[in-house]
């Protein structure tokens, strides 16, 4: 693989981790992050989310929710998701706090608000490397079914980018072909490290 990829959603739980897991299995060099202030997982009601700090291990969240209401969190898919996440990496990481992870060639976001945060963060950094980074937003609803579809579409896009001579020269065609085939709009921006 030629490029380093980052998958970014709000809490580094569902959409980014589904894509991270799939790309990792396919041999890509991939990391994942969230952009929120905290990691939020559904709770017993909309007004009662489960809130954790970034860096809290997925296994710890799993045990906490299993103790609170094992049946609820199994039924809504949170426990299986956390189990999967723990096989991919230790804990959710926050995009803004992990600048030291190095530079990526391509960053995927799965929500326009997250795309804006990533682009703004890259824009505000010191551009010492003067290395380009492609940021692509593929809008994906935050549920398990859509996350799985989004991960497969992301894999398709990554494979297209990998086989291109240079994504800088072919990104317009890759995006146009994807949008035509999938009937989904992409946002993208080029930034620098």
TrEMBL record:
Which BP terms in the Gene Ontology apply to this protein? mRNA 3'-end processing; termination of RNA polymerase II transcription
> Listed GO molecular functions?
RNA polymerase II CTD heptapeptide repeat phosphatase activity
Q: Any idea where this protein resides?
A: Nucleus
Keywords attached to this Swiss-Prot or TrEMBL record, sorted alphabetically, are: Hydrolase, mRNA processing, Nucleus, Protein phosphatase
Catalytic reaction annotation: O-phospho-L-seryl-[protein] + H2O = L-seryl-[protein] + phosphate; O-phospho-L-threonyl-[protein] + H2O = L-threonyl-[protein] + phosphate
* E.C. no: 3.1.3.16
**Gene Ontology CC:** mRNA cleavage and polyadenylation specificity factor complex
Q: Which family does it belong to?
A: Belongs to the SSU72 phosphatase family.
Q: What does this protein do?
A: Protein phosphatase that catalyzes the dephosphorylation of the C-terminal domain of RNA polymerase II. Plays a role in RNA processing and termination.
User: What name has this protein been given in UniProt?
Assistant: RNA polymerase II subunit A C-terminal domain phosphatase SSU72
Species per Swiss-Prot/TrEMBL record: Juglans regia (English walnut)
Q: Give the classification, highest ranks.
A: Eukaryota, Viridiplantae, Streptophyta, Embryophyta, Tracheophyta
This chain is encoded by the gene named LOC108980210
